């Protein structure tokens, strides 16, 4: 509060009328008129020149000393801030707040109200408020920083923006430390209360423009704010800034690309900036639904290629945890398929590249054991892609090339059984009856008949949509499987062949031997998985056979009891006669041999 003996006090942002001259003192005639952006102020020279160096120079250069008229152009804050500065020159009461301190500091710099002309001038007064009140509070720093967006570059030159940015980041670090200590003290509280204590300042940052917000987030990352807090702030800012996307952009993307409005360009800039601010640490856990939401918005608004590729790369890092609905991204290109298959294809390429890099970086032989996280992730993604193929297969606009590209990109060991792949191919053949025989063969060759379950094999053998050669192969392998089951081999020969082929050659290099062992180990694990699936099918069939026998007999206990009694009677009555028959049989054999000898 700046005080004086005068009781005159007005609002910091009064309304002016251009038709009348504003007079600070109505009882004393003014001797100088200052025009600020079309608004005239009738003032007195002495109070002004005693504090403002700029006005002192302008008065000295004025020709008419009796009634001077000066014009000030582009003063920060406009007439409202100039009136507050003049009140300060006259010693009137008004309050310095977070909403006007930045404007007053810039106007004081413009008017050259330094200590050279008067002690405790306006520059010094505003600096005290900034240093002792504003920068000590995160909330006040955000309020002052938000008012600097409409100020000219002088706010940047005198350091108001940089001081507020650093103050916000520093206070956020302090809040993080205090919240961490409080969470250690109260360990039994709910997670909602803990999250609210840590991130109470997230909503305050959403009032900033994207340029200032970017600088604040970069400062927070540099000073050590936790990445999860930064991600939460980015999510809240995105929800507040990108919520105005209309339906017209979804259904008519050509209009947006041909003639985008200024608001759409601003939202595109916001999206690309937020993606660039995502933490790069591997420990950061960005929610997948947020990444997919940003990716959908980026596709609709035609964001930069680098922005979309970055989102796809981050999604690929945790593709095994993605849900099917997340992959169903609508296509925005007219005349194309209903879903954006190309984006999912690129995500899958990034995922396979990550798996390969992790395998190459691993130096231990135990890395590909039964509990290998890389192989488990690959199996999950294989099931996910099969479900995705079955979901997009009914699309009549989906080309065969795109459908095949999604099938062949996954390696063979990504699928334990091919039931999901068979289902997707069957749905595609049913939805595209105009395919030629050559195209059907080209599509069905990616399906391994040996990896089909009993139920899928029975369905494929009777499927008229499949090529004849495919149906014959299914029947052949089904007969071979039944033969192995009856003979009890159950694929032991195949396993022994795989094991014998896995012996490394002496002529191979150690790296090639290691790669060969890894490959053979992976194939053996897949074969074991297939044997488990087959074993479960045989156990289920055995259970059905037992149930059928029980149903036919009516009462299994009575049937077994009568059967045991019958066997007992046979054993009782055949005891003595059995020996006689053996003797007679021996005699008859001796007689026959005797006659034959004769």
Description:
Strands 1-3-2-4 form a four-stranded mixed β-sheet, covered by helices on one side. Strand 2 and strand 3 (39-43) form a beta hairpin. The chain has 29 helices and four strands. The chain is mostly helical and 598 residues long. It comes from Melia azedarach (Chinaberry tree). This is BTB/POZ domain-containing protein.
SSE layout:
Blueprint: E1 22-23, E2 32-36, E3 39-43, H1 45-49, H2 53-61, E4 68-72, H3 78-90, H4 101-111, H5 122-134, H6 138-147, H7 154-157, H8 160-185, H9 191-198, H10 202-205, H11 210-223, H12 227-241, H13 248-251, H14 253-258, H15 262-276, H16 288-300, H17 305-316, H18 324-327, H19 341-361, H20 373-392, H21 400-408, H22 419-431, H23 437-444, H24 454-461, H25 468-487, H26 492-501, H27 510-553, H28 556-573, H29 575-597
Parallel strand pairs: 1-3, 2-4
Antiparallel strand pairs: 2-3
Helix pairs in contact: 3-4, 4-5, 6-8, 8-11, 16-17, 17-19, 20-22, 24-25, 26-27
Instruction: Please tally the β strands and state the result.
Output: 4
Spatially, the strands of the biggest sheet line up as 1-3-2-4
Q: What oligomeric state do the depicted chains represent?
A: single chain
- Beta-strand residue fraction: under 5%
Structural class, from secondary structure content?
Answer: mainly alpha
Low-confidence stretches are: 3-21, 188-198, 244-257, 363-371, 490-511, 556-598
Question: Quick one: biggest sheet?
Answer: 4 strands, mixed
Radius of gyration, CA atoms, in whole angstroms:
42 Å
Mean pLDDT, to the nearest integer, reads: 77
Shape: elongated
Distance between the termini: 145 Å
Helix content class = 55-70%
